[in-house]
Design brief:
heterodimer, A: mainly alpha, MetI-like fold, 85% helix, 0% strand, B: alpha/beta, Rossmann fold, Alpha-Beta Plaits, 2 domains, six-stranded mixed sheet, four-stranded antiparallel sheet, 12 helices, 14 strands, elongated
Amino acid sequence: MEEFLTRLIPNVMKDLNILGKSIVETLQMTAWAGIISFVLGMIFGTALVVTRPGGIMQNRVIYQILDKIINILRSIPFIILLFCLLPLTRLISGTAIGVRGAIVPLVFGTTPFFSRQIEAALSGVDEGLIEAAQSMGNSSWEIVFRIYWRESIAAIARGTSITLINLVGLTAMAGAVGAGGLGNFAYIYGQQRNHMDDIYVTVVILVVLVMLIQLIGNLIVKHNTH
Amino acid sequence: MIELKHLCRDFGEGKLTIHAVNDVSLTIESGDIFGVIGFSGAGKSTLVRCINLLERPDSGTVLIDGVEMTALKPAELREARKKIGMIFQHFNLMPSRTVAENIAYPLKGSGLSRQERDEKVRELLKLVELEEKEKAYPSQLSGGQKQRVAIARALANEPKVLLCDEATSALDPQTTRQILKLLKALNEKLGITIVLITHEMAVVKEICSHVAVMDHGSVVEQGDVYSIFANPKMQITQNFIRTTSNLHKMEELIAEGARIAELQPGELIIRLSYIERNVAEAVISQISRRYNVDVNILFANVEILQGSQLGGTVAIISGDRADVTKAIEYFIEKNVEVEVLKDGRVSDPADT
């Protein structure tokens, strides 16, 4: 078997250790940036829904500010955002390279999109449920936790899988500018040395990763749809 | 007792302002089933939402058992709302929760233990006759079953008042009757005050004891259901009542020149309406005997409303003109309203 693989993907078999390390780095970047931007996305997405005109905590100022910041951040291509954020990244993480250096720009690149996904998910909650909860004496916070979040678990899971898959793509881009991970591997070991097998294997691994994320997302959706 | 005093609620600004509720004052006695009827856009949904302050009135006061709702602090208002149940046209059940979880929803934070809560949910399920659906999800229920769950949920905190916002408008006639029967039973069993808004006069007729008619944000007519049905003063009320009876089809038939409306000389088409509670005598057979006239009933619509006869008869009356006149006078004497819809002796220009 090993012989067969060595013949099929000789360079990958030589760089196996580095490939393993790259996979771990990609998973680390995805996980950390994913968790942080999920939390931030939930906060901002919820804030957008409750403060928008007609929302349960209507607040024009907060809504307008959030809405504009998200639009501005979303309009900057990630590769440019990476460079823009270099000083801030050094300030927060102490370094601008490696996994630690990648997390700040990844969070900045993902949170605005995540917030919009959460906003869309929560907007799908029937207004009638909000009214019913109010008629039962719920406070606005209770409505956020018990109606908005609880009743849109499936939609949130759907938005989260889309966002995480996007994030995997962003980690590869960050990798190309020195963050490590599979993007870095495919670029340095594959493209620069013209080892096409390194690139192909990277692609296969990324496809598997994306499929896994989608699978888990679909399971959560299925479990929460009645 | 619910007292609404000079409630106003506007939507929009400037020239586009809509007076959804315009200076409405109503008193709803405890234990009453009070209907608010109006066409869509009449402001009845806004009015009912002013009772639990889902809509805050621009001016006016809402008093429930002497407590001024409009003056409560937010936390006090939320506590007060727990004692005012509400059900909706589209049920508004939480789709990700089971029937039992939906009913238990308002019990969170009520201080009941888990066991007490389960017990309460079972009790409520029994009350609305849905014991076997405890673990079902709302999507697995029919419309009538969903509304029953919504009623159980609304009753969880043992409210004194139940607000029904077009609660039967999304249901078929048979299910509507079942839900209305349930509401009536709850009213009798629990003594709960029910405020019910609807655009169907049949709903009011079925269970309400009092009714207010709304048009363009104002209450144009109100009173006990029998008086309103027997003697509607406003055009809009009359229109609503016509939807529940066929006694006004005769005018259409006459206008269309239907065969049933063709009269021999000496015949009259009359409509008799029972407008007093005491009409129980056999007035029609009495006049045929006393005055030697023939009465041919074309159609009749008589029913019992709040224990009294309501409705009327459309008939062709024929005989000697003097006798017919006396017969009509007799009806009037007996408090039966008489309208002559067509007179066979007055020559019809179309015939000549």
